[in-house]
Write a structure and sequence with these properties.
- The complex is a heterotrimer of chains A (about 250), B (about 325) and C (about 120).
- Chain A is built from twelve helices and no strands.
- With about 250 residues, chain A is mainly α.
- Chain A has a single domain, classed as Ferritin, core subunit, four-helix bundle (Ferritin), CATH 1.20.1260.10.
- Chain A starts with a helix and ends in a 6-residue tail after the last helix.
- Chain B has one domain: Up-down Bundle (Ferritin).
- In chain B, strands 1-2 form a two-stranded antiparallel sheet.
- In chain B, helix 3 (about 45-70) runs antiparallel to helix 4 (about 80-105).
- Chain C has a domain at about 25-85: Phenylacetic acid degradation B (Ubiquitin-like (UB roll)).
- Helices cover about 25% and strands about 20% of the residues of chain C.
- The longest helix of chain C has 13 residues, at about 55-65.
- The termini of chain C are far apart.
- Classes of the chains: A mainly alpha (about 250), B mainly alpha (about 325), C alpha+beta (about 120).
- Chains in contact: A-B, A-C, B-C.
- The interface between B and C is large, with 51 and 43 residues.
Amino acid sequence: MNQNSSEAIKELLYKMADDLLIIGHRNSEWTGLGPILEEDISFSSMAQDKIGQAQALYQLLNDLGEQEPDTVAFTRNANQFHNAQLVELPNGEYDFSLVRHFLYDHADQLRFEALANSSYEPLAKVARKVKGELKYHVFHANTWMVKLGSANEESHNRMQAAFNEAWNYALGMFEKSSFEDQLIAEGVFEGEETLQEKWLANITPYLIKAGIEIPASTSWNPVFGGRIGNHTANLSPLVEEMSEVFRFDPTAEW
Amino acid sequence: MYGNAYIDPSDKAAAMIAGEDSEKLEAFEKRIAAGEKIEPKDWMPKEYRKQLIRMIEQHAHSEIIGALPEGTWITRAPGFRRKLALMAKVQDEVGHAQLLYSAAETLGKSREAMINDLITGKSKYSNVFNYPAFTWADACVIAWLIDAGAIINQVANAKGSYGPYCRALDRICTEESFHLKYGHDNVVTLATGTQKQREMVQGALTRWWPPIMHFFGPSDKISNHTEILMRWKVKMASNDDMRQQFLNMYVPKIWDLGLVLPDPNLKQNEAGVWEYTEPDWDEFKRVINGGGPCNAERLAVRRNAEERGRWVREALNTSESKYIVPLA
Amino acid sequence: MIKSLDPRVTRAEIEIENPIAPLNELDQWETYEVFHQKKRGDQHMHVGIVHAPNAEMAFLFGKEQYGRRGLSVNIWVVKTRDVFVSEYDDSDIFDTVPEKQYREAGGYKVMAKINKYKKGV
């Protein structure tokens, strides 16, 4: 692998790992506070999976010469994070958390699915390993989206409102990097545009079943910037919270 | 031996079995004495049912409220390993609540009724969760020592007479053994770490010792009432016996780490019995009755969680749903 | 508003006095009995219940509540009310008279005949 490909792969790994870490953190905030015990347990399992997957990707970065996973994940500043802004938004109510889970997990599953055939074998290996977890996450997301979208007036209205709120942020997940063409050319990754098309095709049938409408494409206005370190005011406090204990004694092993 | 005993009408124990069919009661007690389990649809004395519901329900409440002090540190747990483990542990507590509410349901009290009694303060939960987890080390001390105490209680109760409760406890004890190891690993890491970490864990231990000594409750009053509960295998060990067992197992491990327990009188005498300063039972009662540092917050948070989830639950309720008591 | 040690609680902006209406009947949904198979080839075993509003969610919940430590390869969920249950009070229905030896392997003892036959030959 030449220097260029290494930088391109690192960029890809960083944005994926940061997405997973931050959404895992957000989703973990529901543990013990969920809408019913059984769902609390399920949502917590998925949050754990996300954080575990993030760790696996930071490990790949470590293998490429970056710092230890704990150091990378828990000691950077907010502007050094490459996650899409979608995942850093506060949890809001359960409607928003579920809608974000639906939009994010479909993309996540497709991304990993494509990467299972990546020319970068270490990543392909991780992608194959997480397949089962993602299948559960997406089944969970689909079930909740369809049921709540079509249950009663309140739940439908809530889900639609949360969907509208999340939509442009969700489109922001597909922000292209400067390495885009290179990753495609080298067979590392199929690229954000292809991913977005597949994603749209995958989520649409469930949204139809749920009775949830996608905003007219003329109004689409993707929220970009997350991939290059521009974030909402929500990320910085979250990152500080994550590192609070570490900062108490940076020399210590925890 | 039941059957010939003179029943004093002024005895509280008498009230426990008053009006029960003596033939059925005899068969019931015989079954328990033979080590057989009682199952949900078996005949059982009213008082047996009542005491078990009260006990299992409080246990379930303790799990769901117990998720809060440790949950305090979920977003701040240092590093992947600790964060994943803490999430899994708190998740287990929620899972335990689910198992225990289910066991109590088989006795005829719905989960809704139990939650209602929790959030209105009518039903109690373990006092220990009314104390705050000020630092990361507090969460570690809880994971080690509170879970250790819980295991002693739960292992004893798993040998009780009510089938669904025993089965839930078997599963819970298996999971708690991970909690205990996780907690111990954390405390050892802090105690053998930097000066700041040692101070942090010592501080937490000093704060948590009084609630830990309260954990098993005051000495049992020997009464016919407790005697019957022990015969029915509802109560499996005395509070003092469990406290002794805990001290015996864990004080040496704490001292091994060079940590100090805030009780100058704590020692094991020549007979092997642990001596200690009598815990402040007035404080214990004050906290049980709502006067602890976190009682109000814990219940407000539970009410808030129930309320925020209400629209989700209501939306998915279909008119054809029908509740019947779970089987086992 | 609660200023908690738990940042999640502080963010939720909770009033300390926040009485709520009691949960209604069926607020927690009905129950499903969960059966799991530990490994291929094993019988499915009853492991407990979940409260769920429909079968798909009962599966989603059962999988995590009973299989999150990788102890299951397959799960069945069935509405509690659809299970027909025998009564312990009727447990004598399972009693059988000892003469029903004809359906037990031990009820067939041929060695005595064979030995007698062999001696006679």
